[in-house]
Fold this protein.
Amino acid sequence: MKLLIYSAADPAGVNIARHLEAILPFSTSEVGGMPARAHGDLFLVEFDSSLIDLDLRLDGVEWALCLSRHKSSSGKPCLTAHTPGNPGTTAEYGGRPSAVCISNPWLQSSLIRSMRKECDSRGVGLQVTVEATHHGPSDLDFPVTFVEIGSDEDSWRNATLGEIVASAVHRSLNNQQRGKVAIGVGGGHYSEKFTKLILDGDFDIGHIVPKYVLCEGFDPNIFRICKERTLGECKYLLVDWKGTPSEAKDCLRSSAPSLGADLIKV
């Protein structure tokens, strides 16, 4: 069972969901006692509350994809994907500190590639980027990915952007491409380096622990936590070396062998 989840209070989530319903023939169904729309093993589920506080306990879930909005002070239109969780020692927006959801690097990376292709094919010139791991939830029992439209009300309700994301989701549902699974460390919240590595196709990147988290003070076990909370066999730590503080570099050098992961400077 695969879940597509959105909040009725989120105009971007509703926008994407409505365009998915135009692409796929969903039928009335239910999942876990909740009303849903079904297409094979794919279930589209609407919630009333914010997804950062999602607490969903269901058996048999392969993965969940949250259709959501992205908000930033710049208001710049963009399309993003990321894994939820709090790799730092604070949790201001849902979840627990130093706790992350299970990442789905294949789906996350496929969404980035597919959104880029959809934008290029339509001549839509806006930023498509992977984001660092941030905000709740952090403790669900199945892999969770967020795909988002940013960054203001106009963009959230923009029909073209809703259609682009819905088409990218559809394209990613049956994605067979499998790159090398990796965790990203360092750099900014919107990492050009990690986005490029995803677009190049060699790596499927899940969790990203950014520089600002590492500078604020971090649990040295977070790299192990992120690796263990990654779907697939994660064998690589991709480190934005210039964008990683010295303390974190020392921690990575000492912990990489015990993690069974190759440290690659990017």
